[in-house]
Amino acid sequence: MTKKPKHYTTGILAYTRIFNGISPMELSGVLHSIVSIRYTSIASPITQETMNAHVRERNIMTQEIPGSLHVANDVLADIVGNAALECYGVVGMAAPTAADGIAKILPASRLRRGVTVTTTEQGVRVELYVVIEYGTNINAVSQNLIDQVTFALTESARVPIDSVDVHVQGIKVRK
Fold this sequence. Notes:
- The protein is α+β, with helices and mostly antiparallel strands.
- It is built from six helices and four strands; from the N terminus they run αααααβββαβ.
- Strands 1, 2, 3 and 4 form a four-stranded mixed sheet that branches.
- Helix 2 crosses helix 4 and helix 5 (about 75-85) crosses helix 6 (about 140-155).
């Protein structure tokens, strides 16, 4: 008869041996909830039953609660601005009104000025004013930007999207 290994609360390896079929996000939540056990019973072994009890507790907390969420347009503009800067080919955000046809790249603290968010009956309408890197395909970068912004808004804020419009205000050589 083989002897079952004991799992002690020292280190992540013990947790991963017990939780082979659990995703990393669930595992981090369980580990966070086990902190009290870890400090009260450092020398005692953690059993599979104890771990399963904590997983059940965490699953109870993931139930949906009825209510509504209202996200300000400025918050949505921040989400959109950060998502836009992560796209390949986007050098920066520009102001909606380019003076004398010259687009000035906005600093990271003012990304909100390069994004216009309006609410319609169908959802949220987003307009982006960007500066694209010289030598990239403007159509491909714009489509990637639309996809990235749509994903960020639907995943982060869960808002319905009416449209995402990209306005290329300029092209710049990246240094």
